[in-house]
Specification:
The protein contains 7 helices and no strands. By secondary structure, the protein is mainly α. 40% of the residues are buried. The structure holds iron/sulfur cluster. Iron/sulfur cluster binds next to loops. InterPro entries: 5peptide_repeat. It comes from Peribacillus asahii. This is Pentapeptide repeat-containing protein.
Length: 281
């Protein structure tokens, strides 16, 4: 797969709620918090889900205490399970398939997340051998998504993640080195994996090509910071302030991470990430 095709694939990975049977509103177990106003067990439809699988408080989710619903993004796993794995049969029409459908959804969701990261890795200029490994991994993950429900349920997702993580790490190290030396002419950014920067004042900081994998950046003040070439995989950006920050070439940043953060018109995002609607509020 060439870079352009990979870019198009990465961009195409988004939820299509019109073709989903409200799986994220039903299948998942959600504990009450500031992100979700009620306790909901896995397999129980949210009381706000209507018969047509639309949300009756869609326009007011944040005001009603369901902020997390404006953050969640299945990357297309919901419509795949609804329309392909279960051939367009809903759990309402066929209650006997409901339990299996709800167990398949989180597996598909994790496969789609891995596909999105591998697709992003393929958008970069990497060595032929790495590109070859990424392409093979992508094909494997895509073939998993076409399996039937029973085969999906028997997948060992933890094992699936191991080669994916290795490839993403290799891509990250390579691209951050290339950006540092050839684009920015700086020393490669430090490794701050899993660091606790909750609420930290990082206003205006130059963090280019830093490794922030799994970092805790909850409510961190990142206003006007330079975050180009930063690896954000697994970082927690809830309520981080990204006003005016430059994330144009941040790596492995997801729509969910951005949705969970604060930002404004001056925040520069990667091409595959959309500005969240609530940033206009
Ligand atoms: S509040 Fe709406 S979007 Fe959130 S889970 Fe319930 S039905 Fe779905």
């Amino acid at each position: 797969m060439d870079n352009e095709t990979a870019k198009n694939l990465r961009k195409s990975l988004k939820a299509d709620c019109m073709n989903c049977f409200g799986l994220c509103c039903t299948a998942l177990n959600i504990a009450a918090s500031s992100d979700f106003a009620i306790n909901k067990t896995a397999g129980t439809p949210c009381p706000n889900l209507q018969r047509d699988f639309r949300c009756k408080i869609h326009e007011n989710l944040r005001e009603k205490g369901f902020k997390g619903c404006t953050v969640f993004d299945c990357l297309g796993a919901g419509q795949k399970v609804s329309q392909v794995t279960f051939n367009g049969q809903s759990w309402q029409e066929r209650p006997e398939i409901a339990e299996k459908m709800f167990r398949v959804f989180p597996i598909m969701e994790q496969l789609y997340e891995m596909i999105a990261f591998i697709a992003e890795a393929l958008t970069y200029e990497v060595s032929h051998s790495l590109q070859d490994k990424l392409n093979k991994q992508l094909e494997k993950l895509q073939s998993f998504t076409d399996m039937d429900a029973d085969s999906l349920l028997s997948l060992n997702i933890v094992e699936c993640r191991i080669p994916v993580n290795e490839l993403l790490l290799e891509t990250s190290e390579y691209i951050r080195s290339e950006l540092s030396s050839k684009v920015f002419a700086i020393k490669k950014g430090k490794k701050y994996r899993g660091i606790d920067w909750v609420g930290k004042n990082l206003t205006g900081k130059d963090l280019r090509t830093t490794d922030l994998r799994g970092a805790y950046l909850i409510a961190a003040d990142l206003r006007n910071s330079d975050l180009r070439g930063v690896d954000f995989i697994g970082a927690d950006l809830r309520d981080a302030n990204l006003n005016g920050a430059n994330l144009s070439t941040s790596m492995f940043l997801t729509q969910m991470q951005v949705n969970s953060a604060k930002g404004n018109d001056k925040t520069i995002l990667p091409a595959h990430i959309q500005k969240p609607f609530h940033w206009n509020d």
